[in-house]
Amino acid sequence: MCLMRKKMLAATCYVCHGNRAILVRDRLRFNIKRNVLRCVNCGFVYLERPHISKKFYAGKEYRKHHGPNLAKKSSPKEIFEMYLPYQHLIHESMGTLLKSGTKILDVGCSTGHFLHSLKGRVNTRVGVELSSEEVAFVRKNLDFPVYDKPVETLHIPEGPFDVITALQVLEHVEDPITFLRNLGKHLKPNGHLYLELPNIDDVLLVAYGAKGYETFYYREPHLSYFSKATLRRALSKAGFAGEIRTVQRYTLMNHIHWITAQKPQSNFDLGMTAQLVPHAKTSAEKALNAFIERTDREYRDLVGKLGLGESLVFVGKKRS
Ligand SMILES: [Zn+2]
């Protein structure tokens, strides 16, 4: 294993175009055989190509295996209902970017839960999504336009935008720098780009060395695994400058579960829960829940500040 980890391969880095990489591992989630490489020059971690095409997202294949519920495929309605209650965490993180006059584009909007949560809070909401099932759900149930073509080639009549968000999207795109440059074309000169994406310096990998998590972490649809440093480099090449921080949204109890069981909790809701007593009724039960909620908040703030939160957050602008 040690020898394998040091194996050097010829491969072109998608961030710095360096041409040598170290093999990090050769298996993904579900034991899929695929090399994970780390660029020798800049440290960027990525899947060896060739990989899945945009058609993978347009059809039903992606959600068959990847969604908020690990036990079964979720319908667009289930995805919408599972994620909607947690959108306030993103609102908090975006702070003053959300104003009543804001015109916002969400790229990779999935079932539209984030844009729906902004109803009445911003002026104009527009989505872009490749999954035909999820686009159909938004068009049938929600009240904002959604476009189903790659943002790279899209003309959006509502643009340009004050804010563009891409939440857990950058890790899926084939060429991150070109994608980011293309986002910039839809942004007003002084507009803001807001990104959330997985952080490879996740506390479960870096500090706790949770082997079960590592096996789960690297997955076929995630082509890029950014750190603060490699994300900053990619954004800079794409013409953006701003602040990068990390946030921890999964709870302390989720981490204890990973450390002790070395496997995921069965759904997204459980991973976001910081309660010892479900449906607490008595004052003792409520006091126990209040304790874990306080402790969880303190823990997640600490992990985020240490730069080890599960997600990287970027807020910035195009360089003038
Ligand atoms: Zn590189």
TrEMBL record:
It comes from the Bacteria. Transmembrane segments: none annotated. Gene3D superfamilies: Vaccinia Virus protein VP39. PANTHER family: METHYLTRANSFERASE TYPE 11 (PTHR43861:SF6), TRANS-ACONITATE 2-METHYLTRANSFERASE-RELATED (PTHR43861). This is Methyltransferase type 11 domain-containing protein. It comes from Candidatus Kaiserbacteria bacterium RIFCSPLOWO2_01_FULL_54_20.
